[in-house]
Amino acid sequence: MSASGGTSAGGGAAGTRGAGRSEDAGCIGGASPADARASRAGPAGGPSPTVPQPPVDIADLVRVRARNPEAIGEAAARRRRRPLLNDTGRLLIVAADHPARGALAVGDRELAMADRADLLGRLCLALSRPGVDGVLATADILDDLLLLGALENKVVMGSMNRGGLRGARFELDDRFTGYRPEDIDRLGFDAGKLLLRLDYTDPGSLTTLESAARAVDAMAARRLPVFVEPFISRRTPAGALVNDLSAEAVTRSIAIASGLGGSSAYTWLKVPVTEDPRDMARVLAASTLPAVLLGGDIGDAPADRRAAHEKWRGALHLPTVRGLVAGRSLLYPADGDVAAAVDTATALLREAA
């Protein structure tokens, strides 16, 4: 199967041939991914004019899911893996686990991530760009990408706790409704990610903290990396949940996350840039665990995007920072140019290498 629907999904494993046809991500129909990347590159391999995203044949995916659901597991078993870190020691991961928490908005576009064919096309394009190491998502999305052949030689990170639905009264109850450690191990995926939001006034945060620690234990027992995304959070008088990005709060969240479980050997941190990016050096001094930056929703205005890139640039040079995990800012840039947004992030990582 290709993103353009060129392979029939009429039965057996025919619908999953894309999963084993290339040594790179195989979403792009027609030319090989390597050829597609070369044709898109600008001078000296730099960013090119807007690159159209590949179409995704949803009917083809649905036929495979309905007639041959085992094809997903078969594609996972055949998938070619790679080390978590390549020779550069840096990671660029595209995140797409937001929909499972009901978080579909990007900027003022409330349902931006609601069109699954569009999201898959954007992911296929992002994964085909040079320097993109992998993807973070929930099972529904990763299963589709397996069938599309998009995960060859990519780091695949399973999102573990999506129970804290955006805007719900129970939003801080981040239960483990996604991948379990045993699922990540069984499927041959490379890492897991968990969200840890703590409100000191909410007794339920203790349950979240304990369940996160047990997940860290289970991942460490399987020698699988787990990326912990910690926040100190609070409710506004109107009831909205906000994350505190002050230097003190982010430092405290890092200290708490670093101490989870019986071993920190396989724990990574996924951290936001503080309100004042100049605070990042002393904030990250709170732990020796390797960290990746959280991209977040950086806004649609060109000035906001430039400011976010400068924040990333400064923090990427810090000694514990090993990369960037970004989703909406790369997949849904205001100008629609996914390739250019991804290439900009890749260039920032190259600068810091």
Description:
- An eight-stranded parallel beta barrel has the order 1-2-3-4-5-7-8-9, surrounded by six helices.
- The chain has twelve helices and nine strands.
- Mean pLDDT is 86; it is low at 4-25 and 28-48.
- By secondary structure, the protein is an alpha/beta fold.
- It has helices at residues 33-40, 58-67, 70-78, 116-128, 139-147, 181-186, 204-221, 247-258, 280-284, 302-316, 328-331, 338-352; strands at residues 91-95, 134-137, 155-159, 191-198, 226-235, 241-243, 267-271, 291-294, 321-326.
- The protein has one domain: TIM Barrel (Alpha-Beta Barrel), CATH 3.20.20.70.
- The protein is 35% helix and 14% strand.
In short:
The protein contains twelve helices and nine strands. It is α/β, with parallel strands linked by helices and 353 residues long. It has one domain (58-352): TIM Barrel.
Q: What is CATH's topology name?
A: TIM Barrel
Largest sheet: 8 strands, parallel, barrel
Proportion in β-strands: 5-15%
SSE sequence, one letter per element: HHHEHEHEHEHEEHEHEHEHH
Query: What's the helical proportion of residues?
Result: 25-40%
Q: How many domains?
A: 1
Report the top-level CATH class.
Alpha Beta
Low-pLDDT runs of 5+ residues are 4-25, 28-48
Task: Identify the strand order in the major beta sheet.
Answer: 1-2-3-4-5-7-8-9
Radius of gyration: 19 Å
Overall average residue pLDDT:
86
Oligomer: single chain
**What is the 3D form?**
globular
Structural class: alpha/beta
Biased composition (Gly residues): 7-18
Pfam families: Cgl0159
Region (Disordered): 1-56
Biased composition (Low complexity): 30-42
